[in-house]
Amino acid sequence: MRNTIKVTVAVVAASAVALGASACSAPSDTTAGGDKGDKSAPLVVAASPTPHGTILDFVKNKLADKAGLKLVVKPFNDYKIPNKVTDDGQVDANFFQHKPFLDTFNKENGTHIVPVQNVLIEPLGIYSKKIDKLSDLKSGSTVSVPNDPSNEGRALKLLADNGVITLKPGVGSEAKLTDVKDDKGIKITELEAAQTAPRIDDVDAAIINGNFAIGAHLKPSKDALAVESAKDNPYANFLAVKKGNENDPRIKKLAKLLNSPEVKKFIEDKYKDGSVIPAFGPAKG
User: Fold this and answer.
1) I need a labelling partner for 164 at 20 to 30 A (CA). Which of 68, 93, 99, 137 fits?
2) Helical packing angle, 99-109 and 149-161, nearest 10°
3) Where is the signal peptide (predicted)?
4) pTM, whole model, 2 decimals?
């Protein structure tokens, strides 16, 4: 048994940060209206392009007008900027994250973002371009995991659930690298979540978030060596706002639309491969 954990910390690709940063500047007609108290202004929502932005575009194009909602969708290929621009009022809301990620982000950054409405779950998957089954991972093999605390814990638990590594007794999805009891000689490489799919060729296997798997044209039902169970999964992605804006009537309209039968059908029809699963209901603060 090996107790030494080999960790390679990868530098976040500048292109992903630059893309997110460039999306922060918006024309005057898409400026968030919440801080001005203008509830008739367009509702500006920051979102990961897929599936969150895709779902919001469906709402914008098919449902919003009838509900009397003006919706502007701003895509970000980044997990940090959406909360920052929501907190400082550049956008009115965001849609890309789950509760463990948000809790960590608020604590580390002093932001005050709160969840409003659950919409979907994107199960994590283990993917590879080099091996056909997880038993092919041997001592010296490399596996990349997302480097943010909540998703890294999920990734380590997924590896442990499938016998790739062993975690200390009692440790679950809150696991850290120091909680790995036996790495079996496998080198665990930390990457910014957005880089796990683009850099899949650099490792023997990569654990990839559902939205980034979709962007890389990876299908869980066909391509994943293992997929996180959706049953009793606490990682529902939700619509979120800065604390105090929960009762904005535009937010209430969008929350209702995101949990509508039309959106449920859209998700089930578009993501038949299981990469996105509806998970409707009020989000716990």
Assistant:
1) 99
2) 140
3) 1-23
4) 0.74
